[in-house]
Specification:
The complex is a heterotrimer of chains A (about 300), B (about 280) and C (about 230). Chain A has about 300 residues and is mainly α. Chain A has 13 helices and four strands. In chain A, strands 1-4 form a two-stranded antiparallel ribbon. In chain A, strands 2-3 form a two-stranded antiparallel sheet. In chain A, helix 2 packs antiparallel against helix 10 and helix 3 packs antiparallel against helix 4. The longest helix of chain A is centred in the C-terminal third of the chain and has 27 residues. Chain B is mainly alpha-helical and about 280 residues long. Chain B has one domain: ABC transporter involved in vitamin B12 uptake, BtuC (Orthogonal Bundle), CATH 1.10.3470. Chain B contains twelve helices and two strands; from the N terminus they run H-H-H-H-H-E-E-H-H-H-H-H-H-H. A two-stranded antiparallel ribbon of chain B has the order 1-2. The longest helix of chain B has 28 residues. The N and C termini of chain B lie far apart (about 45 Å). A six-stranded mixed β-sheet of chain C has the order 6-7-8-3-9-10, sandwiched between helices. Chain C starts with a strand and ends in a 10-residue tail after the last strand. Helix content of chain C is about 30%, strand content about 25%. With about 230 residues, chain C is α/β, with parallel strands linked by helices. Chain C has a single domain, classed as Rossmann fold, CATH 3.40.50. In chain C, helix 3 runs parallel beside helix 5. Classes of the chains: A mainly alpha (about 300), B mainly alpha (about 280), C alpha/beta (about 230). At the A-B interface, helix 5, helix 11 and helix 13 of A face helix 4, helix 10 and helix 12 of B.
C-alpha cells in the first residue's frame, strides 16, 4: 500500500538527516516535525471548509502545559506534559468548537482569531503566573528518570510525525472524512441526510486542537521556550498557510512536506523582509497557486 | 472620574470609527474587511508623517488625497476574489502586509500629532485639562454619523444601499449594484482612515494597534449584528463602557469580559442584540 | 393509520403567508400527491414537514410522536427523509462518494470507514453501480434525480418527501423515471409534490390540492385533470 510505504520512507529520510546532518539541520528537522502536527490540525478543519485563524490558541495551550508544569511544580516528565497538553488543548478545542460552530466563513475565522487573542492577552498580562511577554523556559523533558537528550527529542519528533501520518491514513478512509467533504461542499444536504453538523465540527475542533497542542508542546521542547506569541493571530496565519500548501501535496506525508516547505522559505526570506510581510505574501502566493490549480 | 470618562470617550470614538466602517462595508458590499483596523492606523501614521513634514494645511490635504486613493485600490483587490473564503484570505493577507509595511516604513516608534495639537489649547472639564483635540474628533465622528444618516435615509443612493444590504439579488434587478458596492467601500474605508488621521491629534499610533482595534471592532459587530450600522454603534458604546470599567478594576480581564459577551450573544441571539430579524442567508 | 400528519400548520415569510392552516395526513404505505399552482405553498409544506424550519403555529406528528420541535437532522433519524426540487448533491464527488457521505451522515464522528457493502447495495438498488466513479456533476438530469432520491433512501425512512421529482427531466423520460423510482421505494410512504398531472394520474393513490397556502380539495388521481388547478 502506497500510504504505508511512504511512512517507512519518511522514517528513512529522517534517520539519514539525523545521522548525516549538522546541528542546525537536526534542529530544523525536529522543529518542522513537531510544528507539522499543528499544520495537520489546521488542515483537518480546512477539510470542512473552516478557516481557523485562532488555532494558535490550542498551539499555545500545549506549549504552556509544559512551561507551567515545570515553572510551578518542577515537573519535567514527558508523559505528564503530553497528558496535560492533550486534555487541556482538547478542552480548548471542544469549547471553542462548540461556540464557533454556530457560524461559518469569515465570522468563524474571526471568532476563533478573537478567542486566541483573548488567550494571548491573558498570557501576556498574568505575568506572575505565565511569565508575561518573556514567556517560560521549557526544559528538555525527562522520560521517567532519564533526560531525553538530543536523540531522544528527535525520536519524539519522529514518533509524533509518523503517528500523525498514520492517523491521517486512518482518517482519510473514515466516515468522519466523508462527512467533512460533505459539509464543505453542501452543508444543507448533509443536514438533510441526518448529520448533526455542529457536533461534528466540535469533535473535529477538539481533534485539531489536540494536534495543535501537541505541536506547540513539541516546538516548545525543541526551542526550550514558550511565549504568548504562540497564541497570536499571525502564528495561526502561518499554520493556515502551511495547511493550504499541504493541500496540494499527497497524503499521508503532505502536511509534513508543507510544513517543511513553508519553514524553509520563511527562514530564507527572514533576511530580507519582516515576518508579517513574508506571511502575507506567502498567503497571497498560495492563494494564487490554489486558484491556478483549481481552474 | 473625569479620567474614566475621557478614557471611555477616546476608546469609544476609536471603536466607533472602525466598527461603523466595517459594518457599513459588510452590510452593503458583503465584504468583511479584516484589515479595516489597519486603515484606521494608517490614517494616523500618514497624518503624523505628512503634517510634521509639510505643515498642517498641506499635510492635511496630502493625507486626505492619499487616503482617498486607497479605497479604489482595495475595491479592485477584493474584486479579484471569487467567494467569501478567498475574500477572507485576501483581507487577512492584506492585514499582514500592512502590518509588515508599517514596520518597514514607519518603524517601531510612536506616531502622534498630540504635541502639535496642544497648540490648539485645552478646556477645563471638572478640574481636569482636556485638549480641544479630543472634541475635534468627537465633532468629526458626529459628523460622520450624521452623514451616514442623511445618505442612507435621505438620498436615492442611500435607498439603493439599504436595498442592496437587505437583498442583493432583488436589488440587482433594478439597481446598479457594483457601483453601490464601490461607493460603500469608498465611504467605509475613507471615513475610517480619515478618523484615524483626526485621532492622531490626541493619541499615539504604534505597531500592533491594528489587530487590537480589530478584536474590539469584531466584538462590537457581533453584538450589534453584522451589517447593522446603528446596532453596531450602540454595541460599540456598550463595549466601550464595559472595557473602561474592566480596565479600571481588573485590567487583566480586559478582553476576556468582552468575549464572554460575544460568546453569549452568539449562543443566544446570533443575529445580534439589536437586530429585529436575522437575515436568513 | 397515519404515518405522518400535520395539524393546522402556519408559516409566514415577512408579510407573506405561505402556509395558512394546513392539516394533512399521510397514510401508511400510500402514495400521496400534492398539487397546486406556483406559490400555493407546496414546497413550504414539504419544508415544514421535513423540518427545514419550524412552523409559526401547528404541529407535525410522525406515527403519533410530536416532532414539531425536532430539527431536520433529528427528523431524518426518526424516519422522515426528502429529496429536492433542484437535486442537492455533492457535485465534485463521485456517485460512490456521494452515497458514502449519506451513510457517514448517520454516524457520529467516527474514524471507522463507511462499509463498502452497504454503499454497493444502495448503488446496485438504484442501478447506479456502473456510474459509481462518475462525478455527480457529470450525470444526466434524470440520473441526478435518481441519486438525489438514493441519498434520501440511505436513512431507510418511513416517509419520503419528493419535491417535484420529475421537474427539469425531459418530457419523454418523466414516466419511466417515476416508474423506476417508485419501484425501488416500495413499502415506503411517499408524498410527492408534482406539477405534471400525467405523472400524478398514473402514480398517485390520493391527491391533495393546494391554493394560496390552504388545502382546498382532496381528489382521486383519475379526477385530477378535470379539476381547475
Amino acid at each position: 500500500m502506497r500510504g504505508w510505504l511512504s511512512v517507512v520512507a519518511f522514517i528513512g529520510v529522517a534517520a539519514v538527516v539525523f545521522a548525516a546532518g549538522g546541528d542546525y539541520l537536526k534542529f530544523v528537522a525536529a522543529y518542522v516535525m513537531m510544528w507539522s502536527l499543528a499544520v495537520w490540525g489546521a488542515q483537518l478543519l480546512l477539510r470542512y471548509g473552516l478557516v481557523n485563524f485562532g488555532i494558535g490558541g490550542a498551539y499555545a495551550v500545549g506549549g504552556y502545559a509544559a512551561g507551567l508544569l515545570y515553572r510551578h511544580f518542577g515537573i519535567a516528565e514527558v508523559t505528564l506534559h503530553i497528558l496535560t497538553a492533550v486534555v487541556a488543548a482538547g478542552l480548548w478545542g471542544l469549547l471553542s468548537g462548540v461556540v464557533s460552530a454556530r457560524v461559518r466563513g469569515v465570522q468563524y475565522a474571526l471568532l476563533n482569531l478573537a478567542l486566541s487573542m483573548v488567550l494571548y492577552s491573558i498570557l501576556l498580562k498574568f505575568y506572575w503566573a505565565t511569565g508575561g511577554s518573556d514567556g517560560l523556559y521549557v526544559p528538555l523533558p525527562r522520560f521517567f528518570d532519564a533526560s531525553l537528550g538530543d536523540l531522544g527529542l528527535y525520536l519524539l519528533a519522529l514518533f509524533f510525525a509518523t503517528a500523525w501520518m498514520t492517523l491521517g491514513l486512518v482518517y482519510s478512509q473514515s466516515a468522519a472524512a466523508r462527512l467533512a467533504d460533505g459539509v464543505r461542499i453542501n452543508e444543507l444536504r448533509v443536514s438533510a441526510l441526518g448529520a448533526h453538523i455542529n457536533r461534528q465540527i466540535a469533535a473535529a475542533s477538539a481533534l485539531a486542537s489536540v494536534s495543535a497542542g501537541l505541536g506547540g508542546l513539541g516546538v516548545a521542547y525543541v526551542t526550550s521556550h514558550v511565549s504568548p506569541h504562540y497564541a497570536h493571530w499571525s502564528t495561526s496565519g502561518e499554520l493556515v498557510v502551511a495547511a493550504l500548501l499541504s493541500n496540494f501535496l499527497p497524503q499521508p506525508w503532505g502536511f509534513v512536506a508543507g510544513a517543511a516547505a513553508y519553514q524553509a522559505v520563511r527562514l530564507f526570506s527572514l533576511q530580507f523582509v519582516t515576518p508579517e510581510l513574508f506571511v502575507g505574501v506567502a498567503l497571497l502566493a498560495t492563494l494564487g497557486l490554489w486558484r491556478y490549480y483549481r481552474r | 472620574m473625569i479620567n474614566a470618562l475621557v478614557a471611555f470617550y477616546a476608546f469609544f470614538l476609536n471603536l466607533l470609527a472602525v466598527s461603523i466602517g466595517m459594518a457599513f462595508i459588510y452590510g452593503v458590499a458583503r465584504v468583511l474587511n479584516l484589515a479595516h483596523g489597519a486603515f484606521f492606523v494608517l490614517g494616523g501614521y500618514l497624518a503624523t508623517a505628512l503634517i510634521t513634514r509639510l505643515g498642517p494645511v498641506p499635510g492635511a490635504l496630502a493625507t486626505a488625497a492619499v487616503l482617498a486613493a486607497l479605497p479604489p485600490l482595495f475595491y479592485l483587490y477584493v474584486r479579484l476574489t471569487r467567494n467569501e473564503l478567498e475574500q477572507l484570505f485576501a483581507t487577512y493577507a492584506l492585514l499582514l502586509l500592512m502590518e509588515g509595511l508599517f514596520k518597514l516604513v514607519f518603524g517601531y516608534g510612536n506616531y502622534t500629532l498630540a504635541d502639535l495639537a496642544a497648540g490648539l489649547g485645552a478646556a477645563s472639564v471638572g478640574g481636569q485639562r482636556v485638549p480641544y483635540a479630543y472634541f475635534l474628533a468627537g465633532v468629526a465622528v458626529a459628523g460622520l454619523m450624521a452623514t451616514f444618516y442623511l445618505l442612507l435615509y435621505k438620498t436615492r443612493l442611500g435607498l439603493y444601499m439599504r436595498a442592496v444590504s437587505d437583498d442583493r439579488e432583488m436589488a440587482a434587478l433594478g439597481v446598479r449594484s457594483p457601483l453601490v458596492q464601490h461607493l460603500s467601500i469608498f465611504l467605509g474605508i475613507f471615513a475610517t482612515a480619515l478618523l484615524g488621521a483626526v485621532a492622531a491629534t490626541w493619541q499615539a499610533y504604534t505597531l500592533g494597534l491594528s489587530a487590537e482595534v480589530l478584536i474590539y471592532a469584531f466584538a462590537a459587530l457581533v453584538i450589534g449584528g453584522l451589517g447593522n450600522i446603528w446596532g453596531t454603534a450602540a454595541a460599540s458604546a456598550l463595549v466601550a463602557v464595559a472595557r473602561t470599567a474592566v480596565v479600571m478594576f481588573y485590567p487583566e480581564l480586559e478582553l476576556l469580559v468582552i468575549y464572554i459577551a460575544v460568546i453569549a450573544v452568539l449562543l443566544i441571539r446570533p443575529g445580534g442584540i439589536f437586530t429585529r430579524y436575522a437575515r436568513v442567508a | 393509520m397515519a404515518v405522518l400528519s400535520a395539524v393546522d400548520l402556519h408559516k409566514s415569510f415577512g408579510g407573506v403567508k405561505a402556509v395558512d392552516g394546513v392539516t394533512i395526513e399521510v397514510r401508511d404505505g400510500e402514495r400521496l400527491a400534492v398539487v397546486g399552482p406556483n406559490g400555493s405553498g407546496k414546497t413550504t409544506l414539504i419544508n415544514l414537514l421535513s423540518g427545514l424550519y419550524p412552523p409559526d403555529k401547528g404541529r407535525v406528528f410522525l406515527q403519533m410522536r410530536d416532532v414539531t420541535k425536532a430539527p431536520m437532522h433529528v427528523r431524518v433519524r426518526l424516519g422522515i427523509a426528502r429529496s429536492f426540487q433542484l437535486p442537492q448533491l455533492f457535485p465534485e464527488l463521485t456517485v460512490y462518494e456521494n452515497v458514502a457521505v449519506a451513510f457517514a451522515a448517520l454516524r457520529g464522528f467516527s474514524l471507522r470507514a463507511v462499509p463498502h457493502e452497504e454503499v454497493k447495495s444502495i448503488l446496485e438498488l438504484f442501478d447506479l453501480w456502473d456510474k459509481r466513479s462518475v462525478k455527480a456533476v457529470s450525470l444526466s438530469e434524470g440520473e441526478k434525480k435518481v441519486l438525489d432520491v438514493a441519498l434520501a433512501y440511505v436513512s431507510r425512512p418511513k416517509v419520503l418527501l419528493l419535491d417535484e421529482p420529475t421537474s427539469s427531466v425531459a418530457e419523454e423520460d418523466k414516466m419511466s423515471l417515476m416508474e423506476r423510482l417508485l419501484e425501488k421505494l416500495r413499502g415506503i410512504s411517499i408524498v410527492m409534490v408534482e406539477h405534471d398531472l400525467d405523472v400524478v394520474e398514473k402514480f398517485a393513490e390520493r391527491v391533495v390540492v393546494m391554493r394560496a397556502g390552504k388545502v382546498v380539495a382532496t381528489a382521486k388521481p383519475a379526477d385530477v385533470k378535470t379539476l381547475e388547478i
